[in-house]
TrEMBL record:
GO terms for molecular function: oxidoreductase activity. Residues 10-311 form the Enoyl reductase (ER) domain. The keyword NADP applies. This is NADPH:quinone reductase. InterPro entries: ADH-like_C (IPR013149), ADH-like_N (IPR013154), ER (IPR020843), GroES-like_sf (IPR011032), NAD(P)-bd_dom_sf (IPR036291), Zinc-ADH_QOR/CCCR (IPR051603). The keyword NADP applies. Keywords: NADP. It holds the Pfam family ADH_zinc_N. It comes from Rhizobium miluonense.
Length: 314
């Protein structure tokens, strides 16, 4: 089978196409013919070596395809493999092997390319907002980095739950959130309070961290929860500890890389219900031929595309 491989860590330039054997099945596993596989920023980081692991390796977390061997043979499925790309070979190949318990049936209303684009962004947003943050109807959610794939997914999930959304972005931004704050012109905590009648946000999904961490924390309502999924540019942050405990704020870390394959499949099953019920919109996608994989990785690395880059397999 044809597979995208990295034999050393580095930039997308290290990616090469190789012909490798179709992997053999172990007990309880299935073989999936991959039709489409998304490229996430985390895939770029995996190739760079940020997540560790060993080489040579096939990257790729998110995919959609058809089971061709195993207990679910003939089923259209989607998946987001636990440890794909660093603990085991991923889905940027013609075939992928994984335990049957890691799979979820694909939503009927999504094409293979669209289904492949859902994985990591929606899993991260759902796990953060629902499982960790317990976002409720009537609450206000502030999203930093709300123009990215996770932020766009979070807006849809919050609306599905009956929550109000505010996005913080730099410059004039187009967003489906209820409100948008241009943080290049406005102080974030002041602007959030102006939009919440002085209360502040019940929940913050911080998809930026770094310099926006403390302003986001100061935007919380009394007893609010801040969910942190990354820190761009700098890992260390500072904040006023007295303000933090006086506000009874809660700081919660979210790392979907720690989810098991079964947990990810369970999240995808919940997302399938929402997509089948038309609660969520189809994700914007930019398809790439498999032989354009390195260019697609570069596009993802630079963040130049508003759509999700998706490899279409031969």
């Amino acid at each position: 089978m044809k597979a995208l491989r990295f034999e050393q860590f580095g930039t997308p330039d290290v990616l090469v196409h190789r012909d490798i054997p179709v992997p053999a099945l172990n007990a309880g596993e299935v073989l999936v013919k991959v039709h489409a596989a998304a490229i996430n920023p985390s895939d770029v980081k995996i190739v760079s070596g940020l997540f560790g692991g060993s080489v040579p390796r096939t990257p790729g977390r998110d995919f959609a395809g058809v089971v061709v061997e195993g207990v679910l043979a003939g089923k259209d499925v989607w998946g987001s493999g636990a440890g794909f790309g660093f603990r085991r070979d991923g889905a940027h190949a013609e075939y992928v092997v994984l335990p049957a318990s890691w799979l979820s049936e694909k939503p009927a209303g999504l094409s293979m390319v669209e289904a492949a684009a859902v994985g990591a962004p929606f899993i991260t947003a759902w796990h953060a907002l629902v499982d960790v943050g317990s976002l409720k109807a009537g609450e206000t959610l502030l999203i930093t980095g709300g123009l990215g794939a996770v932020g766009r997914a979070a807006i849809q999930i919050a609306r599905h739950l009956g929550a109000r959304t505010i996005v913080a972005a730099r410059g004039k931004a187009v967003s489906e959130a209820d409100e948008t704050i241009d943080i290049s012109k406005k102080d974030l905590p002041e602007a959030v309070r102006a939009l919440t009648w002085g209360k502040g946000a019940d929940v913050v999904l911080d998809a930026v961290g770094g310099p926006l961490f403390e302003p986001a924390l100061k935007s919380l309502a009394l007893g609010g929860r801040q969910l942190v999924i990354t820190s761009v540019g700098q890992k260390r942050v500072e904040f006023d500890l007295a303000d933090f405990y006086h506000n009874r704020s809660k700081l919660l870390g979210v790392d979907t890389a720690k989810l098991t394959g079964e947990e990810i499949a369970g999240l995808l099953d919940k997302l399938k219900v929402a997509f089948d019920g038309a609660s969520f919109k189809k994700p914007p996608v930019r398809p790439w031929r498999f032989d354009q994989a390195a260019d697609a990785y570069r596009s993802t690395a630079t963040g130049e595309a508003a759509e999700k880059n998706v490899l279409v397999m031969p």
